[in-house]
Amino acid sequence: MGDLVPLFPLGSPLFPGIVLPLQVFEPRYRALVRDLLALPEDGGGRRFGVVAIRQGWEVERVAPAEALYDVGCTAELQVVRPQPDGGFRLVTVGGDRFRLLDVVVGGEDEEDKPYLQAEVEWLTDEEAAEEAAGDQEQVLGSPAAGLDEGLVREVASGSLGVLERGVGGLFTRYVAAVAALQTGREETAAAGAAEELAGAEALLEAVAGDPRALSWLVASAALLTTEDRQALLAESATRRRLAAEARLLRRELTLLETVGAVPAPLHQFAGPLGLN
């Protein structure tokens, strides 16, 4: 059996290290927050699992195992603000990735918990030597049998740096292209676009030198489909995640430049409140 984690289904996945504000108003999720607050603050247990809902499917109308994607990410409670109506405003940060093994549906009794819970297995990242060993043929372009392991790691590390710079450059172009679509419209929209562009550049500076953090930033900020984002969340190797993001950003840039349309307002880069 895996660990039991309370679930909070949302329309889009959460990624490690990404801030997620939430407004909690449904009774079952109010109960979830109260249960978490009853735990010791320094015990590491004040977290719940965020899982994305498959597009067009209502969790309540179909089996949860079918309605939810099978890979999610924990949300660690950082700030809890009780509201006069009994709800809560939360600030959480993405923590560890997991895979759903089984979903436990809550009952009416308080002991049964009114919210979904799941048995999960924790997913580890493929980094450093493990990733280098797994990708050495891709990195070197030919079978690497017999090569010095240290050389393979050095080449892999260098290629990861190249990918990091490439994705950072593509993301800057992508945000600039989205911002450009806002210019020529109302003045406030243009000003907001410029502000978001500056914000994206600041975020890139904050994750400079950390390919893993960059990959999660791009996954969360780019206006991708839930399916694309979910595939990035499920990818355990930073190199392969960055390579996928490079392909996705090139695709999105082509659409922006040829069609001249953006799928959602630029202000979504700021991460609006998610309503459960």
Describe this structure in words.
With 276 residues, the protein is of the alpha+beta class. It has two domains: 3-123, Roll (Archaeosine Trna-guanine Transglycosylase, Chain: A, domain 4), CATH 2.30.130; 128-274, no CATH class. It has helices spanning 27-37, 64-67, 128-140, 149-182, 187-206, 211-221, 226-234, 238-259, and strands at residues 3-10, 19-24, 47-52, 71-82, 88-104, 117-122, 274-275. It has a five-stranded mixed β-barrel with strand order 1-3-4-5-6. Strand 4 and strand 5 form a beta hairpin. Helix 3 (128-140) packs across helix 4 (149-182), helix 4 (149-182) runs antiparallel to helix 5 (187-206) and helix 4 runs parallel beside helix 8.
Distance between the first and last residues' Cα: 28 Å
What structural class do helix, strand and pairing data support?
A: alpha+beta
The rounded Rg comes to 21 Å
Number of strands: 7
Question: How many strands, which pairing sense, and closed or not: the largest β-sheet?
Answer: 5 strands, mixed, barrel
Helix content: 40-55%
Strand content: 15-25%
Low-confidence stretches: 129-134, 139-145, 265-276
Shape: globular
Q: Look at the structure and give the mean pLDDT.
A: 80
Strand order of the biggest β-sheet = 1-3-4-5-6
Number of domains: 2
Succession of helices and strands: EEHEHEEEHHHHHHE
Tally of helical segments: 8
